[in-house]
């Protein structure tokens, strides 16, 4: 039969086996297809409708459909897969079969293998040793089969079924693990070792291993030793509750309800006072979203809702501070906007006008512009509540910081939101500031303002200094927001200026010109100008707020300054102080000091007549127009009691420190010239008096050479005149330095700086700096105490020199009078004995008591009286020495003291290096040049 007939017979057989329908086979099928039973084809006349299509396809096919290279590559991959899965016995069996096929090399080997591969299904997990044993003859094993019963007898661990269970260390099982839990090994019979699963092994009954014993203690030890019987809770996977499926629309509704503050099933809200915490319920899920993604999205909603619900709880609480009330009202408005927007979303989802896609992510993105500002406000409220010493202005301070941070981050929407809220709250905070700098009043109960008033009554001179104080924190910082620190001083001074003007009855001038040039504090005006687009918010606010404060401060300060100069006579008072304490008018100063020095010399046991001194000072300064002489007064401190000490104190320049001048100032002037500075004026006045005293003592009497020739030798006259000239030079140089180089330039600079001062505080600072500078440059500062003491010693040398001269004149005249008396006695009575009076060259004399000699110019006391009243301990040691030796000693002491002062001033100038030190160096050079000249 032909190939076509055979092919047709095979197709008929294939169709019949597949469809169970007899086909019309040709008569010669039995002969063409050997091995077919003839009864199967008897009477088969029906033909299958697909037969011709299959035959036509087979006849038109010229090449084999199977590619042998693909088949062999498939088998190689299957071999590798077996080994990866640990089924090496399958890989080895496949290798053996392939080797046998390669030895036979049948014609249709690729097609047969391809067909087998197509029929295979999960070969690595379904094939076992038994399948391989059925496919090939397993050689007989002469060794005896291993039985489970034998193993259990040897090892009791194998008796427990849990030993052979697989342990899973993962959270969730996979399909591969479920498949791997099946049997791994198999045997031919039940008595052989078949696999590690518990279902295929024959177990003996537990009763076979029971041991009857009464040893309960030993039984307990055995049970405790069997650690494998204890249940390991770490390996037990908790039972996962069944998830409830919900739609995304239901989830969206729960989210919107949560934002609105309504109870929900998807979220759990915990409230505590003014704080809310939102947790996600884990019993719900969505079909089209994985559980992890769904929970992550819900947690983000819960975090945002925690902030919103905390704000809702906080706005429900009552606030007492005005600033917090405004802040609370602003948050309420923003929550109302959020509720309106959420209602619109709900309406869009419930009653859609057009097709709407329900999306939780979409709702989250839509609500972010409204939720982000509220979240930041919730952070501010949380920080404010957690601050144990929180004040309402702390909230304003945190808003300022948030505004600056938003601008730095480039978030324009958040920057605008925080900026508007900040300026709205600022308008409330500056209400007490406005009342203070416009009316000079402090509101009762305003605990957030940084200015406080003293509880007790304060005198008018202390009105500026002590009545009002700036409140401070416990750590010393200003009791106000940090951004007000630069302007706090001006705010404080402006209010005090208004208070002073009220006491001076000048407040009506302020009221008539208030509010004309006041700049506005608004976010759009301050920050939204195009030219300031890139400027930092902190600088913009500082500029705007400083301009607002300056508009108030400049006006009040200028009116008060003008009032002090014109109505209160500040310039007149300062000029009067200069004439009285600094002796600016030389002739009037000489007239006053001469009167004081004469009274000092004529006093004995009592101090000078202070009433006469006051009258003389008032008459003397009465000729100066700027001095109100009726205010002038002088007080004196008592000297040391005792006749000897009293005489010494009167002659010493230290006695001048007991004289104090009083010149009361009006209370507005005392605001600038504080009473504490009058002490410095008095110290300078005393120092000037001391310099004048030494100069007056050296030059009060003209020295006649002819009268001195007969009482002094030439070796005594030259040292005296040299030392006297040097002492006069020292006093004149020092007085010139104090008046021309220190007091006059400082006074002129002070007058100019007062005119340039902006407010009273600056005027006070100018005057305090002026008087301090005068004290430092006049050698009265604490750094120059030693140098000042040596300067006073030099001034004392002039008084010592004149006292030595007086003693020398008194002794010389006493000797002359004694000689004349002796001649008279000898001429009258040659036998008369003269009282014993010793006269020595060194000038010591002993004479009768009550002897007084009067000269033409002055009254000469007895030498003993002079010694008692005018000598110090150092002088007493020189009294017994010759007059020339005393002069040389004073000259040596003068050079030593002046050298010390000069070098000390130059050294101090180099050490300090300031403007004051420059004048010290100049004075040191002047003194040094005078010594060497």
TrEMBL record:
Record flagged with keyword Cytoplasm: yes
Example of a GO biological process term: meiotic cell cycle
Every Gamma tubulin complex component C-terminal domain range: 570-908
Domain Gamma tubulin complex component protein N-terminal: 253-565
Gene3D superfamilies to which the protein is assigned, alphabetical: Gamma-tubulin complex, C-terminal domain
Localization terms from the record: Cytoplasm, Cytoskeleton, Microtubule organizing center
One GO MF term attached to the UniProt entry: gamma-tubulin binding
Domain Gamma-Tubulin ring complex non-core subunit mod21 N-terminal per the UniProt entry, residue ranges: 84-174
GO cellular component: gamma-tubulin complex; microtubule; spindle pole; spindle pole body
Keyword set, alphabetical order: Cytoplasm, Cytoskeleton, Microtubule
Protein family membership: Belongs to the TUBGCP family.
Identification of the protein by name: Spindle pole body component
Organism: Blumeria graminis f. sp. hordei (strain DH14)
């Amino acid at each position: 039969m032909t190939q076509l007939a055979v092919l047709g017979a095979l197709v008929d057989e294939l169709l019949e086996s597949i469809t169970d329908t007899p086909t019309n086979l040709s008569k010669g099928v039995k002969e063409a297809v050997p091995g077919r039973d003839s009864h199967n084809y008897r009477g088969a006349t029906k033909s299958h409708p697909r037969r011709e299509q299959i035959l036509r396809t087979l006849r038109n096919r010229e090449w084999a459909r199977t590619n042998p290279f693909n088949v062999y590559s498939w088998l190689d991959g299957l071999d590798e897969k077996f080994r990866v899965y640990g089924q090496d016995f399958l890989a080895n069996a496949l290798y053996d079969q392939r080797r046998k096929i390669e030895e036979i090399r049948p014609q249709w080997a690729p097609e047969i293998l391809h067909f087998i591969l197509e029929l295979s299904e999960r070969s690595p997990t379904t094939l076992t040793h038994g399948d391989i044993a059925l496919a090939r003859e397993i050689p007989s094993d002469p060794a005896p089969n291993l039985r489970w019963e034998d193993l259990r007898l040897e090892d009791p661990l194998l008796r427990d079924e849990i030993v052979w269970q697989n342990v899973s260390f993962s959270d969730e099982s996979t399909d591969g693990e479920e498949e791997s839990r099946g049997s791994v090994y198999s045997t031919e019979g039940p008595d052989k070792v078949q696999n590690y699963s518990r279902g295929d092994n024959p177990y003996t009954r537990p009763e076979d291993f029971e041991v009857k014993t009464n040893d309960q203690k030993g039984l307990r030890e055995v049970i405790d030793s069997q650690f494998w019987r204890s249940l390991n809770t770490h390996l037990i996977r908790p039972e996962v509750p069944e998830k409830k499926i919900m739609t995304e629309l239901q989830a969206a509704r729960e989210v919107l309800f949560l934002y609105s503050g309504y109870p929900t099933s998807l979220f759990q809200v915990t409230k505590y006072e003014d704080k809310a915490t939102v947790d996600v319920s884990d019993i719900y899920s969505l079909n089209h979203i994985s559980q992890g993604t769904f929970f992550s999205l819900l947690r983000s909603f819960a975090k945002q809702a925690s902030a919103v619900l905390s704000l809702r709880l906080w706005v429900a609480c009552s606030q007492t501070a005005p600033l917090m009330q405004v802040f609370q009202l602003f948050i309420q408005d923003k929550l109302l906007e959020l509720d309106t927007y959420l209602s619109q979303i709900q309406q869009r989802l419930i009653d859609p006008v057009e097709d709407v896609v329900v999306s939780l992510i979409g709702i989250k993105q839509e609500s972010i512009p409204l939720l982000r500002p509220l979240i930041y406000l919730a952070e501010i409220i949380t920080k404010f509540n957690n601050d144990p010493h929180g004040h309402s202005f702390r909230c304003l301070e945190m808003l300022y910081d948030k505004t600056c941070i938003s601008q730095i981050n480039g978030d324009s929407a958040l920057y605008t939101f925080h900026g508007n809220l900040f300026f709205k709250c600022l308008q409330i905070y500056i209400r007490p500031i406005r009342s203070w700098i416009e009316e000079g009043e402090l509101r009762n109960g305003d605990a957030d303002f940084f200015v406080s008033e003293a509880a007790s009554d304060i005198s008018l001179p202390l009105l500026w200094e002590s009545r009002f104080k700036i409140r401070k924190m416990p750590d010393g910082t200003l009791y106000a927001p940090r951004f007000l620190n630069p302007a706090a001083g001006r705010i404080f001074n402006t209010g005090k200026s208004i208070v002073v003007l009220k006491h001076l009855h000048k407040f009506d001038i302020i009221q008539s010109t208030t509010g004309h040039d006041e700049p506005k504090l608004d976010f759009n005006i301050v920050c939204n100008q195009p030219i300031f687009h890139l400027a930092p918010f902190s600088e913009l606010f500082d500029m705007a707020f400083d301009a607002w404060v300056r508009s108030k401060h400049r006006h009040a300060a200028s009116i008060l300054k003008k009032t002090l100069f014109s109505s209160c006579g500040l310039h007149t008072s300062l000029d009067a102080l200069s004439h009285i304490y600094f002796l600016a008018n030389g002739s009037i100063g000489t007239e006053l000091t001469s009167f004081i020095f004469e009274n000092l010399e004529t006093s004995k046991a009592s101090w000078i007549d202070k009433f006469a001194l006051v009258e003389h000072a008032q008459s003397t300064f009465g000729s100066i127009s700027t001095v109100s002489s009726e205010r002038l007064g002088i007080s004196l401190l008592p000297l040391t009691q005792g006749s000897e000490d009293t005489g010494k104190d009167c002659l010493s320049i230290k006695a001048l420190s007991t004289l104090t001048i009083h010149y009361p100032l009006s209370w507005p002037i005392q605001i600038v010239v504080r009473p504490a500075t009058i002490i410095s004026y008095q110290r300078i006045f005393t120092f000037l008096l001391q310099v004048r005293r030494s100069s007056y003592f050296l030059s009060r009497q003209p020295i006649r050479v002819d009268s001195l020739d007969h009482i002094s030798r030439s070796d005594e006259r030259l040292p005296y005149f040299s030392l006297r000239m040097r002492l006069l030079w020292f006093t004149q140089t020092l007085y010139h330095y104090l008046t021309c180089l220190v007091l006059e330039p400082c006074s002129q600079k002070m007058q100019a700086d007062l005119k340039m001062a902006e407010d009273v505080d600056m005027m006070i600072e100018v005057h305090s700096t002026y008087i301090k500078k005068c004290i430092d440059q006049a050698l009265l500062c604490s750094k120059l105490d030693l140098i000042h003491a040596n300067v006073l010693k030099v001034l004392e040398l002039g008084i010592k020199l004149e006292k030595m001269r007086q003693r020398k004149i008194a002794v010389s005249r006493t000797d002359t009078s004694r000689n004349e008396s002796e001649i008279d006695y000898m001429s009258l009575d040659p036998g008369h004995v003269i009282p014993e009076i010793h006269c020595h060259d060194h000038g010591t004399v002993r004479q009768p008591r009550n002897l007084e000699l009067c000269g033409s110019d002055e009254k000469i006391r007895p030498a003993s009286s002079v010694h008692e009243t005018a000598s110090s301990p150092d002088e007493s040691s020189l009294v017994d020495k010759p007059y020339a030796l005393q002069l040389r000693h004073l000259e040596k002491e003068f050079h030593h003291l002046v050298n010390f002062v000069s070098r000390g001033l130059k050294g101090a100038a180099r050490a300090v290096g300031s403007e004051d030190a420059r004048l010290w160096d100049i004075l040191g050079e002047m003194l040094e040049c005078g010594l060497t000249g």
